[in-house]
Design goal:
The chain is mostly beta strands. It folds into four domains: 122 residues, no CATH class; 156 residues, no CATH class; 126 residues, no CATH class; 55 residues, Membrane-bound Lytic Murein Transglycosylase D, Chain A (Roll). Helices cover 4% and strands 72% of the residues. The protein is built from three helices and 21 strands. Strands 8, 9, 10 and 11 form a four-stranded antiparallel beta sheet that branches. A three-stranded antiparallel beta sheet has the order 1-6-5, with no helix packed on it. The chain has a three-stranded antiparallel beta sheet with strand order 2-3-4, with no helix packed on it. A hairpin with a 2-residue loop joins strand 8 and strand 9. The longest helix has 7 residues.
């Protein structure tokens, strides 16, 4: 008899660490900008494109990008902007990490605050949530079966293992020129440009991953007419492309996280010589993971009539992908302004989604959190002709997840694909955010596999001590195969004597006749 083996790639989970990092510093107003009176609006984004696994630690580097829109002291209705960034370079200690390990890294801003130090300086403090999940691929030599041993004396089971096949970080650039609509004035001064990615779609093919979506661009600027009123425009730039991934399979699973690493915006004249053309360039980072669900039929147990089988079993822990869903939800709320000037005209509204709690229940994932929204508007106030208002919109969504059960783990990647606002009155605004949630449910399974079997002659004295015939009553957990192994009996003969099918389920208290089987030589 010989062992039938198969090498299997298994993704071993090393560990998961969560921490908070405090980033703080000063922002100096450039010499060409006027003094600060008050902050109207701020945007902050943490970008971490470089993550490396080292011995006992995970290192990461990137930047904290900050945009400030502020009221100046150089005149009525004077609005200006500052853009800056601060480098981020840090590490996180993790026991068991080796240089070849794969790290899933995410960083998000949990809290951001600003303080005006003086007319020319701001102080910022950012609390950043950092989550690192580390795994590595290992190879297991698993016994699948035994040659020349009747199949009825071998018991098989199936393992469905989700393993990480390939991980890659790549970049691509989106470049385009867009022209302001004819009903918009030309640009006197560009204040800020917001970028976002919406309607992401990912498809895996043999050897490549196709990515498509929209780059949403929102320029805020001073118009060239009259007093230079604040104007807003919106553009959606479709993009698509392919990234080579050797491990990708047609219809397989590919997880892609997209982030805007950097952007450049230039203002150019149109054919009439007016500054109405925006030259846009955005560098997009793509964090790509290729995973595979492999079904392995392996040997769970075996017995032999005339030999002892000494089995070496190795514990195995692996993740099994239960389900994956992509859904869109509306977060809608009427916001009533409190302690704020009356609205004359809404310029723009934006927000960030924060998920605070993710619970897995039967066939569902319950997600709770909030959208922190910001409304920038023209106010009915001589002291503050422009004003921004912050609001919080609760999120509670139930995502259908077939097969999900209590105790399983779920991860949710959320993006805001679209934002609508409607001014109901001078102090009421209806906000509507379209959230896209990519939900993955996994089950952590603890099992074991047979790595080796030693064969040795059966002890004849022990066999002689066993009764040649036994009448027994079935106990809880007994099976026909297990009884045949225990009494060194032929499964087929045991079923035949008791007028049963070999796959028959037994009832507690059922009476069986068992006849010991001996080899021909004996």
């Amino acid at each position: 008899m010989e062992l039938i083996r198969e090498k299997a790639a298994i993704n071993k989970h090393i560990g998961r660490e969560t921490t908070q990092v405090l980033l703080e510093g000063d922002i100096i107003v450039p010499d060409i900008k006027p003094d600060i009176s008050s902050i109207l609006k701020s945007e902050a984004q943490i970008v971490i494109p470089k993550v490396n696994s080292l011995t006992g630690r995970i290192s990461y580097s990137g930047k904290l990008a900050i945009k400030i829109l502020y009221m100046a002291k150089d005149g009525e209705n004077s609005v200006h902007s500052i853009s800056t960034f601060a480098p981020v370079d840090d590490f996180l200690n993790m026991e068991g990490v080796l240089p070849h390990a794969w790290a899933d890294f995410s960083a998000s801003i949990a809290h951001m605050e600003y303080r005006i130090v003086n007319d020319r300086k701001l102080n910022y403090r950012a609390v950043v949530d950092v989550v690192v999940d580390v795994s590595e691929n290992t190879s297991a030599d698993i016994v699948r079966g035994i040659t020349n041993l009747p199949s009825s004396q071998q018991k098989n089971t199936m393992l469905v293992i989700s393993s990480l096949v390939e991980k890659k970080f790549d970049e691509f650039t989106i470049k385009d020129d867009v022209v302001l609509p004819k009903n918009k004035p030309a640009i006197r001064e560009l204040l800020s440009v917001s970028f976002a990615i919406a309607n992401k779609e990912v498809r895996a093919f043999n050897g490549r991953v196709d990515i498509s979506g929209y780059l949403v661009v929102l320029p805020l600027y001073k118009g060239s007419e009259g007093d230079g009123l604040i104007e807003i425009a919106e553009f959606e730039l479709p993009f698509s492309g392919s990234i080579d991934m050797a491990g990708a399979k047609d219809g397989g699973r590919a997880d892609v996280g997209l982030s805007i690493l950097d952007n450049l915006v230039g203002v150019n004249p149109d054919e009439d010589g007016e500054d109405r053309v925006l030259a846009l360039e955005a560098i997009i980072g793509a964090d790509i993971k290729i995973s595979d669900n492999k079904e392995l039929v392996v040997l769970e147990d075996a017995y032999c009539i005339d030999q002892n089988l000494d089995m070496k079993k190795v514990p195995l822990e692996y993740n099994h992908l239960v389900c994956r869903n992509n859904n869109q939800f509306n977060v809608k709320e009427v916001v009533a302004l409190e302690d704020a000037p009356e609205i004359l005209q809404i310029l723009t509204a934006d927000g960030l989604a924060h998920l605070e709690d993710i619970k897995v229940v039967d066939d569902k994932v319950v997600v709770e959190g909030f959208v922190s929204a910001n409304i920038l508007y023209v106010a009915n106030s001589d002291e503050a002709p422009l004003h921004s208002y912050q609001a919080s919109l609760p999120i509670r969504q139930v995502v259908e997840a077939k097969g999900a059960r209590l105790g399983m783990s779920a991860s949710v990647e959320q993006t805001i694909d679209h934002i609508n606002f409607n001014m109901l009155s001078g102090d009421e605004v209806e906000l509507r955010f379209v959230l896209n949630m990519d939900t993955t449910v996994q089950e952590s399974i603890s099992a074991e596999y047979i790595a080796d079997i030693n064969f040795s002659p059966i002890n004849s004295e022990e066999m002689d001590q066993m009764p040649s015939m036994v009448v027994l009553y079935v106990q809880k957990g007994d099976s026909l195969w297990g009884i045949a192994k225990r009494y060194n009996a032929s499964l087929e003969e045991l079923a035949h004597i008791n007028e049963l099918d070999i796959s028959a389920e037994l009832s507690v208290g059922q009476r069986l006749l068992v006849v010991k089987k001996v080899s021909e030589e004996e």
